[in-house]
Write a structure and sequence with these properties.
The chain has helices spanning 7-19, 35-47, 75-85, 95-98, 117-120, 124-139, 151-163, 193-198, 201-214, 220-232; strands spanning 2-4, 24-29, 50-55, 89-91, 143-147, 169-173, 237-245, 260-268, 271-279. The chain is an alpha/beta fold and 283 residues long.
């Protein structure tokens, strides 16, 4: 496994692999890797011949007062995990390498970036789209792997690839959970013992909506209200939103008549967690 920090080194390594007829995959990460990230790498290794993993804590997707400086970083542990998982190249650029001092052009996420996370974190998805577009331009992968836990991000990246005619296929990978249902996240390390126990309320809320939908309930507003009521029962949790949406448009649904996704975002102390789950009606 190679470790490189410069854009030119990545391009040369990928070019050499492509000359050998290898299919290139990219797994973009911000490090602090866990089993969810490794599931993306595993999926990439099964679908491609040469797997690039980027580790870059992207400053442009953090807003004022957010946790950019405190975001967990442990490169040596990440390298060991990726070596064991079978990654071929790890790209760890500096901020200066990714953003010139006089950089001016950014990528706007469009209307999908105005709701939910975009409303609460203004500018977040512009930062995501810009860095992902840059990584696509640097690595030029055939496939790029993203987890479904950041569902809005996944939808926006898919839309960006479609609208900008980028020659990469986005592969969505399922959420990885611990036995009590909590979705794996690098930010879980921030939780105190009490907050960690309370964090299972996200999964319980989603399962509540899933159970109602499978039981034949099609009123999306009722499903969202059931999630809000579930979260309200946890005194350590503060709700940001709970919604049932169309997974393609991210619009709030009135009635479940096709594919749907339940979304929740909750604050536990200083930590903010998001989660989601597909819904289908049993009617």
């Amino acid at each position: 496994m190679e470790r490189v920090g410069s854009i030119e080194e990545v391009r040369q390594a990928v070019l050499a692999a492509r000359r050998e007829g290898k299919r290139i995959a990219l797994v973009p990460t911000m490090g602090a890797l866990h089993a969810g990230h490794l599931s993306l790498v595993d999926a990439a290794c099964k679908r491609a011949d040469y797997v690039v993993v980027s580790i870059f804590v992207n400053p442009t997707q953090f807003g004022p007062g957010e946790d950019f400086a405190a975001y967990p970083r442990d490169l040596e542990r990440d390298f060991d995990l990726l070596r064991s998982e079978g990654a071929d190249l790890v790209f760890t650029p500096s901020v200066d390498a990714m953003y010139a001092a006089d950089a001016q052009v950014t990528v706007a996420p469009g209307p999908l970036g105005d709701v939910f996370e975009g409303e609460i974190r203004p500018g977040h998805f512009s930062g995501v789209c810009t860095v992902v577009a840059k990584l696509f331009g640097i690595v030029q992968p055939d496939l790029a792997f993203f987890g479904e836990k950041d569902f809005q991000q996944l939808a926006i990246v898919k839309r960006m690839v479609c609208d900008l005619d980028l020659p990469v296929r986005i592969v969505a990978c399922p959420i990885v959970r611990v036995p009590d249902g909590l979705a794996l996240s690098s930010r879980n390390v921030y939780l105190s013992a009490g907050e960690r126990h309370a964090a299972t309320v996200l999964y319980r809320a989603l399962r509540t909506a899933e159970t109602l939908a499978l039981g034949g309930e099609t009123d999306a507003a009722l499903l969202a209200e059931a999630m809000r009521a579930c979260i309200a029962e946890e005194p350590l949790a503060t709700l940001d939103y709970a919604a049932v949406i169309d997974p393609a448009t991210l619009r709030t649904l009135d009635v479940l008549a096709g594919p749907a996704r339940a979304l929740v975002a909750v604050r536990l102390g200083e930590t903010r967690l998001i989660d989601n789950m597909p819904l289908s009606t049993g009617a």
